[in-house]
């Protein structure tokens, strides 16, 4: 069957998630001819249904990603498929990285530094928060780095948060409203949150900021072409080895080539690294796939005598604490290295994937039934995002097994630093102390280390020998190929990555528009 060759465009984008959608909107608005190739479904807001079963459809739906390493990574839960990508089902907790997160190696001798500091990203954080909308109280976030106030007041807080906050207060741990990319009031034509905690199902009313309500509509309006069921299989090169486009396969298994002056890889860290490795492109340094990283997630759970309204609120919780974020340890301190952020009172369903029943995997039958009946109205939960120290040996690599298009599958080798594992233990123990101080009648911590949020694999840096891209995501070996997303992160701090992914994309898109000839072949 002959390959279908499409009319060349200015920009070909792989992936219609958070970063890909922003690039498509910005560049199309600047007059560039943009084609977006997304392997998954063309989701619209009208497709979204507040259902535990339906929410699974928004998770990863592409080729299997194989596990490896000492602590296998749950790839499918952390990634997405279709228009919106993982940002379609993200929980929208949007704190910024801290200034110290950008100089991990210089300050502490761990991992990697970013090629720039917080001040470089600050104006892009400010622009994105005004564009997408964030609810919060910047003044109450005593840990927050400099930046503009949030455009909306904080979201409502429910009884579960009030009960848990007692424990923080008693132990002298400070708490603030969580900054959330969720409307507390009507904003930019989108309604306010109704607090029924279906963030994981994509927020059908559009109160939660995601690509379907902002950048994808803007890209379409500006003339970008969005193609679903388009699985990119290779970076096309010319006789000189220069990137000239993307090869992709449609739902009928027909092969296509989209030629472009500039290529943007926005398929998240794993798929970006996989495509580069499978294409044998851009890896002279041997760094493609290296420095895979993911947050470790700790949780502490309790039951209380009073009812907690634990079904109400948001999936990410409404309050947070970053008193554990400071990486500087007092002399003689036994605390393991790393930052962490507590989220208080995520709203939970009785039997969801992250629901109440799943906190007690040791219970079956009648004991599980009795537990759920009690916990459904008396449950409280703390969830911590814990920093993971970057490790070069943790990586994305190609497996011997291939997908149906003949592309080798990706394998994630996740082998955390010993201090990362110790920090998880430390935070879990602190969570139990907080619950006891809050008056929990029963309390237990998760017994299994969970990892979430993909980063690394195409890390940025100034030195082509030790990184894959420059500070704008341009491959050191190919100025017309730009990697986007969390794969660029040299380190990950202790906050969810989506806000930073968008800030980085905003910075690069602006530079592309201002200096187009340096990006275009």
Portion in beta strands: 15-25%
Spatial gap, N to C terminus: 29 Å
Rounded Rg: 22 Å
Q: Mean of the pLDDT scores? A: 96
CATH architecture: 3-Layer(bba) Sandwich
Within CATH, the superfamily carries the name FAD/NAD(P)-binding domain
What is the helix tally?
12
Judged by helices, strands and strand pairing, the structural class is alpha/beta
Describe the main β-sheet briefly. 8 strands, mixed
Instruction: Quote the CATH topology.
Output: FAD/NAD(P)-binding domain
- What coarse outline follows from CA principal-axis ratios? globular
Task: Quickly count the domains.
Answer: 1
Q: Roughly how much helix do the residues carry, as a percent range?
A: 10-25%
Number of strands: 18
Written as H for each helix and E for each strand, in order along the chain, the element string is EHEHEHHHHEHEEEEHEEEHEEEHEEEEHH
CATH class: Alpha Beta
Provide the low-confidence segments as ranges. Answer: none
Can you characterise this structure?
The strands form three sheets. Strands 1, 2, 5, 6, 7, 8, 17 and 18 form an eight-stranded mixed beta sheet that branches. Strands 4, 9, 10, 11, 12, 15 and 16 form a seven-stranded antiparallel beta sheet that branches. The protein has a three-stranded mixed beta sheet with strand order 3-14-13, with helices on one face. With 521 residues, it is of the alpha/beta class. It is globular, with a radius of gyration of 22 Å. β1, α1 and β2 form a beta-alpha-beta unit. The protein has a single domain, classed as 3-Layer(bba) Sandwich (FAD/NAD(P)-binding domain), CATH 3.50.50.60.
């Amino acid at each position: 069957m002959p390959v279908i060759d499409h009319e060349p465009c200015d920009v070909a984008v792989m992936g219609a998630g958070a970063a890909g959608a922003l690039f498509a909107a910005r560049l199309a608005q600047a007059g560039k001819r943009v084609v977006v190739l997304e392997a998954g479904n063309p989701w619209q807001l009208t497709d979204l249904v507040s259902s535990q079963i339906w929410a699974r459809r928004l998770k990863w739906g592409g080729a299997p990603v194989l596990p490896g390493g000492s602590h296998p990574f749950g790839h499918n839960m952390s990634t997405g498929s279709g228009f919106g990508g993982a940002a379609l089902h993200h929980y929208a907790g949007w704190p910024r990285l801290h200034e110290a997160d950008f100089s991990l190696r210089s300050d502490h001798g761990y991992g990697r530094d970013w090629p720039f500091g917080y001040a470089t990203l600050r104006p892009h954080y400010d622009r994105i928060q005004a564009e997408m909308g964030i609810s919060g109280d910047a003044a109450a976030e005593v840990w927050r780095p400099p930046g503009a106030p949030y455009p909306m007041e904080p979201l409502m807080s429910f009884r579960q948060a009030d009960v848990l906050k007692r424990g923080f207060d008693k132990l002298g741990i400070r708490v603030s409203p969580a900054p959330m990319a969720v409307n507390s009031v009507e904003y930019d034509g989108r309604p306010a949150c109704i607090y029924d905690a279906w963030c994981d199902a994509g927020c059908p009313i559009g109160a939660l900021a995601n690509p379907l309500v902002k950048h994808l509509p803007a890209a379409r309006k500006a003339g970008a072409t969005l193609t679903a069921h388009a699985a990119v299989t290779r970076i096309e090169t010319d006789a000189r080895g220069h990137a000239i486009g993307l090869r992709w396969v449609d739902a009928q298994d027909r092969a296509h080539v989209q030629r472009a002056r500039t290529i943007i890889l926005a398929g998240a860290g794993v798929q970006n690294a996989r495509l580069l490795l499978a294409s044998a492109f851009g890896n002279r340094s041997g760094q493609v796939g290296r420095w895979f990283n993911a947050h470790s997630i700790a949780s502490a759970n309790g039951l209380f005598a009073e009812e907690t309204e634990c079904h109400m609120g948001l999936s990410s919780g409404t309050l947070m604490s970053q008193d554990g974020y400071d990486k500087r340890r007092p002399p003689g301190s036994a605390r393991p290295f790393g930052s962490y952020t507590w989220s208080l009172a995520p709203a939970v369903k009785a039997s969801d994937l992250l629901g109440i029943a799943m906190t007690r995997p040791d219970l079956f039958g009648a004991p599980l039934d009795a537990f759920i009946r009690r916990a459904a109205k008396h449950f409280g939960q703390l969830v911590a995002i814990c920093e993971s120290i970057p490790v070069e040996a943790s990586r994305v690599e190609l497996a011997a097994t291939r997908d149906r298009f003949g592309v080798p599958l990706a394998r994630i080798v996740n082998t955390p630093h010993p201090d990362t594992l110790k920090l998880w233990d430390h935070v879990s123990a602190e969570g139990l102390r907080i619950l006891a101080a809050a008056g929990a009648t029963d309390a237990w911590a998760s017994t299994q280390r969970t990892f979430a949020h993909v980063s690394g694999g195409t890390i940025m840096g100034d030195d082509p020998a030790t990184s894959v891209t420059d500070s704008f995501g341009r491959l050191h070996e190919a100025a017309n190929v730009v990697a986007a997303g969390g794969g660029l992160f040299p380190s990950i701090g202790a906050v969810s990555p989506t806000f930073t992914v968008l800030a980085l994309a905003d910075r690069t898109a602006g530079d592309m528009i201002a200096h187009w000839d340096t990006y275009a072949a």
